[in-house]
Specification:
- 85% of the residues lie in helices and 0% in strands.
- It is built from six helices and no strands.
- The radius of gyration is 21 Å and the shape is elongated.
């Protein structure tokens, strides 16, 4: 693959990595009944992390963060913010904030696609404009 192809595929691969990481948190740490029982009897430091993750989805923190990211992505032309909106949406989807997470993934992904397409088309359009300009002197 060309370098430009890898560069345009990288945000999507990182988005996949975010989804896999969020799924690992959900199924490995939050939904595991053995870990739930272990955290109720003993209380190592990582049980507080688990409790914080649970409180986050109970209070829709991840969904609200995803919607805020989507709003920022719509208001700006930065690919990083569009990716962040999609990543927060994927995280929210995995951690039980389905409606808001899905909306953020949709907005962030569409915005990222548009910004990638604009970045690819910009050099072509500049070349066309230069070729179409009429020069007064040969």
């Amino acid at each position: 693959m060309k370098t430009s192809s890898w560069r345009s595929a990288l945000p999507w691969l990182l988005l996949l990595a975010v989804g896999l990481g969020a799924a690992a948190l959900r199924f490995g740490l939050i939904e595991s009944s053995a870990i739930g029982q272990f955290c109720s009897n003993h209380a190592p430091w990582w049980c507080r992390v688990r409790t914080g993750l649970v409180l986050g989805f109970l209070h829709n923190v991840y969904g609200l963060a995803a919607l805020l990211g989507a709003l920022l992505a719509l208001l700006s032309r930065h690919r990083a913010l569009a990716w962040l909106a999609a990543a927060l949406g994927v995280f929210a989807l995995q951690l039980y904030c389905v409606e808001t997470g899905a909306l953020a993934v949709l907005i962030g992904s569409l915005r990222l696609l548009r910004l990638q397409a604009d970045a690819r088309a910009a050099p072509v359009e500049q070349r066309r404009r230069r070729q179409q300009q009429v020069q007064s002197q040969p």
